Amino acid sequence: MLERVVRLNADYARVIDDDRLEDWPAFFTEKCLYKVTSADNHRRGLEVGVIYADSNGMLRDRVAALREANIYERQTYRHLIGLPAIVGAEAEVTRAETPFLVVRIMRDGTMDLFATGRYLDALVDDGGALRFRERVVVCDSGRFDTLLAIPL
Amino acid sequence: MGEPTRAWPGETLTRVPFWVYQDEANYQTELRRIFEGPTWNYLCLESDVARPGEFRTTFVGEMPVIVVRGQDGAIHAFENRCAHRGALIALDDAGSVKNAFQCVYHAWSYDLRGNLIGIAFEKGSNGRGGMPPEFCKADHGPRKLRTTMLCGLVFGTLAPETPPIEEYLGSEILGRLRRVMRKPVAVLGRFTQALPNNWKLYFENVKDTYHASLLHAFFGTFRITRLTQGGGVLVSPDGAHHASYTIGVPEDAKSAAYREQGIRSELDGFRLADARLLDSVDEFDDGIQLQILTVFPNLVIQQVQNSLAVRQVLPKGLGAMELHWTYIGFADDSPELRQRRLRQANLVGPAGYVSMEDGCVGGFVQRGAVAASDEVSVVNMGGEGTDSMDTRATEASVRGFWKAYRRYMGA
């Protein structure tokens, strides 16, 4: 299982960093939760996210909005995803916690350490493919520079 | 090279010189005359300091401030600066103390009103050292703010002459504020957004009803707000505060104003895969889909459908600021309404479908006008005045900002 999760994370990072965002929703099950929050909100049980999607459709809408509606300066990410810790295994659900680090590269070449944190995942085998039923992105900091466009 | 000119182009509010975003001395004057002057600064929610001894730390301009609930139940605020050597007294964003704060540096202590009450080794050790006997603790202490409460919001001011908050806001804006903040709130979460621009560029942006459907294509496409929809802008008589609103009556589907002008926000082919995002309830029973309200100089209260938030504007130097977002609901929200608020939080905040652009557009001005300190920007939509208007194709509330700004600055 560990190897499958590692491979999934590697593919996930490449899809975002290579700007293939249209392929990003396929990492999630149809009914899912993708949320970006901060460690402080998470610890306090505060539910809101800077991004909050509770269906695959909402993920596809996020990508469509980024492509067609939203304005932001050209930028890319470089994800470095650490080794997952398998923290729970229920009947059909594997729970993993994985650290990440994201560098943001702006069009003028400025590189910033944009976000660090951990992915809290609930993974399921969805017709032979491992998918996220839940991916809660818990950023170590609750301070976001300028804006968060591309998903983490 | 002579001294740079720092003059305003006459009395008109329709021209704003770019040096106001670039001049360090002017910025320092703003901190003194506006934030630390006769204005009400939003500090925190009343519920953030619900019980005696609970405190939050925040800022008035750049001045660090402690807000704390006293044993008597009143809310006190004072500068977060030890009277001894100037160190921060409280180091956490929030917490609880029993009866006193103690500075970590030399253990000087303060009661919950900010009075200096204890000096470590005040009488010295073994009869040697210590403070001179004539040293009077009551003469030394951090600056105290006067606080006031309104609809669960805590405001503070350093100036004795600041009028009561109701008078400060004026009846129209007060009514718009009471409309949203009408029940005990529940905090859903907090985020900070660091913006690469002078604080005024954000405050103007929030007051600028003209840009909303033009910059934010998401808004226009889903008819959350368009300039051709019903709505308007209310400006307080002194220009300082505003409330803009959109009435949720669907516009005439044949309205072609945007298309005819070739405006980018018309994206006909764009449809949501999951329309629950915009599935909202008319919780205020008045058909108003969106209301953005500002209280000069640092507060924004937002209702975008069922997404409610309090935004605090904090200057962080000449070309930087922070926006502190507190997403709220009401304590009596049903689980369904709460879920709706969580989904609609996608519309706002650092990653908001309709507010993402506000995070970067101030920086575009800051960078674009960097060599234009002697040039002016044009704020002329809807004429020259600052009166309330029943259209949003106006910059009346931006001019109102400058009217108030110049009065406080004596410019």
Structural class of chain A: alpha+beta
Number of strands of chain A: 8
Q: Rough shape of chain B?
A: globular
Strand order of the largest sheet of chain B: 2-11-10-5-4-3-6
Shape of chain A: globular
What letter string, H or E per element, gives the SSE order of chain B? EHEEEEEEEEEEHHEHHHEEHEEEEHHEH
Please describe the biggest sheet of chain A, giving its number of strands, its sense, and whether it closes into a barrel: 7 strands, mixed
End-to-end Cα distance of chain B, whole Å, is 24 Å
Biggest interface: chains and residue counts? Answer: A-B, 36 and 40 residues
**What is the tally of helical segments of chain B?**
10
Q: Beta-strand percentage of chain A? A: over 45%
Spans of at least 5 consecutive residues with low confidence of chain A: none
Helical residue percent band of chain A: 10-25%
Proportion in helices of chain B: 10-25%
| Protein structure class of chain B | alpha+beta
Number of helices of chain A: 3
How many whole angstroms does the radius of gyration of chain A measure? Answer: 15 Å
Q: How many E strands of chain B?
A: 19
